[in-house]
Amino acid sequence: MSGMVTTPARHIAWHLILAICAVVVLVPVVWTVAAGFRTQISLLMGEMAFKPVLSNFAEVLFSKTSDFLINYRNSLLIGTCSTVLCVSIATLGAWSLHRMRWRAWVVNSFLGWTLIFNMMPPVALASAWYTMTRSVGLDNSFLALILAHTTLNLPMAIWLMSVFVRDVPRELEEAALMDGANTPVLLRYVVLPIIAPGLAATSVLTFIFSWNEFAVALTLSTKQSATVPVAIAKFAQDFEIQYTQMAASAALSILPALVLLLVAQRYIVAGLTQGAVK
Amino acid sequence: MNQIRINRRQAIAGIGATALASTIRPVWAQSVAPITIVINQSPWFDSFSKTVQAYEAETGNKVELDVNPFAGSLEKQRNSVRAAAGTYDILIMNSGWFAEMYFGGFVTAISDIDPGFQLDPDLFTLANSIYFDPASKTMAPSGKLMSMPIQPNLPMLYYRGDLYKEKGLKVVETFDDLFNNAKALNSPPDVYGIVQRGARGAYTVSYDFFPYLFGMGGGIYKDPVAGDYSLTLNNDVGREALDYYIRLAKDAGHPKTAAMDQAEVIQALVTGHAAHASVVIAAWSQMDDPEKSIVVDKMEFAPTPHAPGLPPGPALGHWLGGISHNVPDERKRAAVEFFRWFQRPEAQMVNAKAGGIPLNAAVYNDPMTEERQFRWMKPLAAALPHAVNPFAFPEASEVISVLELGLNRSIAGEISSVDALNSMSDEIEAIMAKHAYKTGKGAPLG
Amino acid sequence: MNAKLDRTAARTADRNASPGSDTLWKWLTFSPAFAFMLLFSALPLINLVATSFQNVTWTGGQADHSAAGLSHYLALPADVLFRAGLVNTIIFAFVAVGGQAVLGLALALFTTKVTRGRTIYRAIFILPILIPGIVIGAIWKLMLNFDFGLVNKLLGAIAIAPHDWLGGSDTALLSVIAVDIWHWTPFCFLLFLAGLESLPQDVFEAANMDGANAWQEFIYVTLPLMIPTIVVTCAFRLVLAFKVFDEVYLLTGGGPGTSTEVISFTLYQRFFTEDQLGYGSAMSVAVIFIVSLLLVFAISAGRRFEGAAK
């Protein structure tokens, strides 16, 4: 990142600044998670010290009207499938657009189209997709949700991978081609290792967006296929918000996403940089 | 007849509905197709769910409940009724959108599915909002029976009984009573005499304002039941009501009333910072829950105040059950069977005991209402016959949007009450005219 | 400039590639993306534009489409909520995205300066975007509460008077922007970090040998190389900022007055709540058009900066 040598004093300085920023970022998150362990009245009174209770988590996970564990499973399924699908399609598409001699108008109009699609209000999109899926009988299926999330995140994924794909040095590409590599080999052993960090970041973001997506998930799902955001939204009711239960469900919702991302990011990068041709 | 009724009620309460199913199978309950009800998650959902379970146990008919977040209920219902074939058989419609369903022909009248359907005589008809005449497009008993009341939500005056006892105050009847009591109990910042809503939202400040407007004998329109939507908002009664609302906030209310919404009003109540508040009755259970409130057992309830000689005018925020138009006939008939069971006093007793709000007046005469935890029932029963349905037409949300902005700005002091009322009236008249209703402007306030 | 290089490089590669297979792969790699966009986005977009020229009413359970010409578009400037929404959203979008980009870049740069603990910092700084928007709105609403909120309590601890952050029309929009910056800086952070980690080392070594200090290195080496990442990140953040809904809905509901009315509210109100499908579609198309203009402006400005730096 930098050719500069960092002295120990400099190191401590950077750590200090980062630590302060980390605290500012963390305080609301910790407060949210802590709220899951409080009674509603304790939260509303704004007490600083409180006696922790587990009733909110019990309510969220085990009450008769809650399907939280099912929603979890659904979100994981839809999240991973749509992320894998979306990022693969986007990477291939980005490579194709920028390195495979398409005419400029094709590249620009396609990218522009994806961007315009991205600007569509979710409310209008959700109802249009509902009509489409219902007419083929797919309205409450996982397939519909996976395809929907893939499409929703495709514009961002394609644009982001476009940036990272452009960083692949042409000399490497030419060298590999001169060695007789065809496109699949080129992609797997030359391109992928170089764009690995970018791919990881894009995957992480795509997964997060899918995990937190509400409008389309609500419209295209029913009880059995509902996702975590739909479950969390149930706590915002017509005249009250059940804050502590919402906080508990949010705390539960962050956990797998965080673990998945930390683990996955390392493995994506490590796995892709294997066999890099340097 | 009464004797038999009491015995049955005691039997249900004592033995439990499940056991009952194995001993009695009432003649009127037929075995019908399974149905799906779409409903929103809410504090009263539990009681509805238990009532449905009692229905299933008693009749052996299957009912599936699809529970959705409130923000999204309308969308799901619209998608279902606008498709070629509906997913849901019974729609639990909020007061905000049932008119849209009636006018658009999206729900089939109960009286069309079963011409012999008799409404229980003790059932609250909720300002006749369950009736609709497609020809004249009005909601009057002469029309068809469109839907079944599911939840009679309306605002009540919540007040601190313990503080009343301390200061020797009497229950509020008129607006002057409210003003005096609120002033007497106002000791900011510990306790505000009253906390009102003033924030602009989907249906926030205007909902709080309506009991004041209607309770003083005012209204937005001249004669909506007859279809005359001429504006009467900006007349003297309207001005009196708005000025009173603002004066109450200034002299006995919260300094940030213009920013208060439902969540914050309830927060003020449960944390003991409000002596009065006008809140929907469905929030009663929070007051006595030790995990949600520090004023357990201290809150009392009364109908919203009224001008001397006039009835109170609480505005309905209720839920009705309608039958989808685009589902097979056998499911429509099954839905009617459910309604037939649901409206009976016995079923409403199950509803009430599970923590819900009963719809049958017979329940309110039961000795159960004497119990401390049900102390809100008698005042509610007194208020229900006077419930007002402010909007009997589908374009209500456009009008509400105007009211929210205008009221919020006048409470915040950005514009005077006269200017607010005049501009709101003009805008509402334009909306009604745009949608071809019979309307007209009142003379502008001086 | 780039296009020319592309063509030259491509021609060189072409000479060495086997004939025929290149075209096959060219289409194979592009068609999945193209198919998805065609299947799932074409119909809704066309439907949106078509509806914007119609009036849609419902009777007897059926839809009734009647032509409305340009009337919906012409009605837009008179809509007080639309005007307020547009102005507020443009302010919100640019200030919030600007703030996130600067903070995100700063955080990413600082994180690259340390070797140990990078994973931990990365995890911490990602956290805010893992939380769903609806929770962010609800929780921050409580924290910014006048009587009981954490923010006022903390300020009170350092002897600053409590302030009605969300209720005062002077601070409401700023508070919403602050919440948004907290929520979305991780997005910029993550992408900038990935970008920084992919930068080629040789340019830095050259700069170091030329005796550049940290600041010069940043301005003349790092920044120009990061421009593509910055532009794309900001572009998407901008589009997302125009779609912001959940947080603002729960924080302020558009109030006080219209000071935090954002365009997605107005759209939701008109398109969905009031069920004005034709008018709402026209509004959506108008907003898409305006955002596109803003983006074209932003991207071309970025390209010019990139060209100048090179």
Name its key features.
heterotrimer; A: 278 residues; mainly alpha; MetI-like fold; 12 helices; 75% helix; 0% strand; C: 310 residues; two-stranded antiparallel ribbon
Largest sheet of chain C: 2 strands, antiparallel
Strand content of chain C: under 5%
Helix content of chain A: over 70%
Instruction: Please tell me the CATH architecture of chain C by its name.
Output: Orthogonal Bundle
CATH homologous superfamily grouping of chain A:
MetI-like
Query: Regarding CATH, which class of chain C?
Result: Mainly Alpha
User: Strand-and-helix sequence of chain A, N→C?
Assistant: HHHHHHHHHHHH
CATH topology call of chain A: MetI-like fold
* SS-derived structural category of chain A: mainly alpha
- Please tell me the overall pLDDT of chain C: 85
Biggest interface reads: A-C, 108 and 110 residues
Helix coverage percent of residues of chain C? over 70%
Summed up, the domain count of chain A is 1
Q: Give the DSSP E fraction of chain A (strand runs of 2 or more residues).
A: under 5%
Helix-and-strand structural type of chain C: mainly alpha
Notes on the protein architecture:
The complex is a heterotrimer of chains A (278), B (446) and C (310). Chain A has 278 residues and is mainly α. Helix content of chain A is 75%, strand content 0%. In chain A, helix 5 crosses helix 7. Chain B has 2 domains: 201 residues, Periplasmic binding protein-like II (D-Maltodextrin-Binding Protein, domain 2); 206 residues, Periplasmic binding protein-like II (D-Maltodextrin-Binding Protein, domain 2), CATH 3.40.190. Chain B has 18 helices and 13 strands. In chain B, strands 1, 2, 3, 4, 7 and 13 form a 6-stranded mixed β-sheet that branches. A 3-stranded antiparallel β-sheet of chain B has the order 11-8-12. A two-stranded antiparallel sheet of chain B has the order 5-6. In chain B, helix 1 crosses helix 2 and helix 17 packs antiparallel against helix 18. Chain C has a single domain, classed as MetI-like (MetI-like fold, Orthogonal Bundle). Chain C contains 13 helices and 2 strands, in the order H-H-E-E-H-H-H-H-H-H-H-H-H-H-H. In chain C, strands 1-2 form a two-stranded antiparallel ribbon. Chain C is globular. In chain C, 47% of the residues are buried. Classes of the chains: A mainly alpha (278), B alpha+beta (446), C mainly alpha (310). Chains A and B meet through helix 2 and helix 6 of A and helix 3, strand 2, helix 4 and helix 11 of B.
